[in-house]
């Protein structure tokens, strides 16, 4: 990983085995982020035999790259949910997220998980009069939804704010150390976790997960892979994916207790850790945005310098999350077999949401009632609510697919790609995604995303090929870094002229 997060750099755990051959269990969970590990833990607590398959390392997906605020106060979500769905849904969402937070808090205490868990207030703040009006609206909506929020002009940020809506007794933690705690519990209860094992497909009839290392047969299959990689329900087309950036630096003088997020653009998210780091996040954009992603880090770093006097950035990282067109996560059955479940679309608020999603999927799998199942029901149509957003998502996908895939004018040639750069180029009548490393060596792979065929674009900051349609990402060697794609981009042989890209 080019930019490992603070969490990735400060947590260790035992490597788990790779799957060899075929295994039979009662439940298999695909994906070892907070959602998958919590689900595995809950299923084990109900006495099932459980296997987890993870394409990378445990908690190296979005959960390892989050900012890890655990809160029911999530920017201006209550005004949005009240507008789209009404007060009852907003209220159910608030309650579900508080329950998710409580589930984490209980587990941390009961199992003595050492993960820097600490209570903290959450604040959505404004620095302008216009922003303050939005804060008032959000405070009303959050209050109507049942949250004990207050309005305040005070914060522990090192600059003036106009107004903030505040919710006390929320929490922050080290997400990866929490996941290590979940992993320890899974192994203790007899579960198995297979790392470096990618699920490629699900045979719903046979109850089999086909991986690149063997197959796992199970009565219950949970897809907690962040993106549902099977095409059933076309969920990836019903969500948009957005990347955000974070930087962490030491701040000995400034004590930031609260977890803050600005209401104005560009959004700035601020929280601290127990050991003296301040994390600043923001700079969201749709996955595959062709603009220089390195500029996103530079913007955050400059903001951290101006507002916190941060002269040295210790960590920087970026990640992405899905948002459904109607603003609610999808949690529930995947298809009609009754044995496959999934959760996705946490809209950058997946700590509490992912935890409650795990409880919902566990209850559904065991044939039990769950109070939040209806709220997040994956079978809702999503057209009545949020239709215009859905249309926008579909239009962007189609535009990328049609214009970029079939229009061949204006492309670069391989020779035009300089050291450290990547571009989609025309070679031998077809398109290739070409990266030239600092030694001048060319790495060329197909530019056609293996998920549903959109064209990938180069992400300069992470040095990955990112697909704007549903958020798949690939390394410069073509390997899948992030789903929903499960197949790598195939290598392309290209002919280079003798001329070097710099012309020397
Ligand atoms: C920059 C950023 C900041 C955020 N900050 C916050 C925050 O402050 N608070 C909050 O609540 N939420 C936040 N979120 C959202 C939150 O981090 C995510 O919603 C949450 O981590 C998703 O967890 P997950 O377990 O569903 O997915 P992941 O953590 O991504 O886990 C999925 C796992 O599945 C694996 N996988 C994928 N495909 C396959 C396959 N085919 N086979 C096997 N394994 C597979 C992946 O490798 C990964 O490990 C943030 C998100 C971003 C992007
Ligand atoms: S992620 Fe769906 S086409 Fe690329």
| Count of individual helical segments | 9
Q: Give me the CATH fold name of the largest domain.
A: FAD/NAD(P)-binding domain
CATH architecture of the largest domain: 3-Layer(bba) Sandwich
Strand content: 25-35%
CATH H-level name of the largest domain... which superfamily?
A: FAD/NAD(P)-binding domain
Topology:
Blueprint: H1 6-9, E1 23-30, H2 34-45, E2 50-53, E3 69-70, H3 77-85, H4 87-110, E4 118-126, H5 129-144, E5 150-152, E6 163-172, H6 175-188, E7 192-194, E8 199-203, E9 208-211, E10 215-223, E11 239-250, E12 259-262, E13 268-272, E14 277-286, H7 294-308, E15 315-324, E16 330-333, E17 340-344, H8 350-365, H9 387-406, E18 421-427, E19 430-436, E20 442-446, E21 457-459, E22 464-466, E23 473-475, E24 480-482
Parallel strand pairs: 1-2, 1-10, 2-7, 4-12, 10-17
Antiparallel strand pairs: 3-6, 4-6, 5-6, 8-9, 9-10, 11-14, 11-15, 12-13, 13-14, 16-17, 18-19, 19-20, 21-22, 22-23, 23-24
Bound molecules: flavin-adenine dinucleotide and FE2/S2 (inorganic) cluster.
């Amino acid at each position: 990983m080019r930019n490992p997060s603070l969490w990735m750099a400060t947590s260790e755990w035992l490597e788990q085995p790779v799957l060899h051959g075929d295994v039979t269990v009662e439940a298999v969970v695909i994906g070892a982020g907070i959602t998958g590990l919590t689900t595995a833990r809950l299923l084990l607590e109900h006495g099932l035999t459980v296997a987890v398959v993870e394409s990378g390392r445990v908690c190296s997906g979005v959960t390892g790259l989050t900012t890890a605020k655990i809160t029911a106060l999530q920017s201006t979500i209550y005004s949005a949910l009240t507008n789209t769905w009404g007060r009852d849904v907003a209220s159910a969402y608030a309650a579900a997220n508080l329950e998710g937070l409580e589930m984490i808090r209980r587990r941390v205490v009961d199992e003595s998980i050492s993960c820097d868990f600490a209570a903290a207030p959450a604040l959505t703040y404004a620095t302008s009069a216009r922003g303050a009006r939005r804060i008032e609206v959000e405070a009303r909506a959050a209050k109507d939804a049942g949250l004990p929020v207050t309005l305040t002009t005070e914060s522990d940020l090192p600059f003036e704010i106009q107004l903030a809506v505040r919710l006390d007794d929320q929490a922050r933690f080290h997400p990866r150390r929490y996941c290590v705690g979940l992993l320890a519990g899974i192994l203790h209860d007899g579960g198995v976790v297979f790392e470096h094992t990618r699920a490629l497909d699900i045979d719903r009839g046979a109850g089999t997960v086909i991986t690149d290392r063997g197959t796992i047969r199970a009565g219950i299959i949970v897809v907690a892979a962040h993106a549902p990689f099977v095409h059933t329900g076309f969920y990836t087309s019903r969500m948009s994916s957005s990347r955000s950036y974070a930087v962490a630096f030491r701040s000995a003088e400034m004590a930031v207790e609260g977890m803050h997020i600005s209401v104005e653009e560009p959004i700035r998210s601020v929280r601290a850790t127990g050991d003296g780091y301040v994390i600043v996040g923001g700079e969201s954009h749709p996955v595959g945005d062709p603009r220089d992603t390195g500029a996103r880090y530079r913007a955050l770093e400059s903001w951290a310098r101006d507002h916190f006097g941060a002269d040295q950035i210790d960590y920087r990282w970026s990640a992405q999350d899905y948002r459904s067109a109607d603003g609610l996560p999808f949690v529930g059955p995947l298809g009609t077999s009754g044995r496959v479940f999934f959760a996705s679309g946490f809209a950058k608020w997946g700590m509490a949401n992912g935890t409650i999603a795990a409880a919902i999927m566990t209850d559904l799998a065991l044939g039990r009632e769950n109070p939040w199942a209806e709220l997040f029901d994956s079978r809702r149509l999503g057209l009545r609510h949020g239709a215009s957003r859905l249309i926008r998502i579909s239009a962007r996908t189609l535009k990328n697919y049609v214009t970029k895939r079939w229009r061949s004018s204006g492309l670069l040639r391989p020779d035009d790609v300089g050291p450290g750069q990547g571009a989609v180029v025309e070679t031998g009548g077809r398109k290739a995604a070409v990266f030239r490393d600092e030694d001048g060596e060319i790495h060329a792979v197909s530019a056609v995303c293996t998920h549903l065929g959109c064209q990938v674009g180069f992400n300069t900051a992470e040095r990955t090929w990112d697909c704007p349609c549903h958020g798949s990402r690939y390394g410069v060697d073509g390997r899948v870094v992030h789903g929903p794609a499960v197949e790598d981009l195939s290598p392309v042989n290209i002919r280079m002229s003798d001329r070097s890209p710099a012309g020397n």
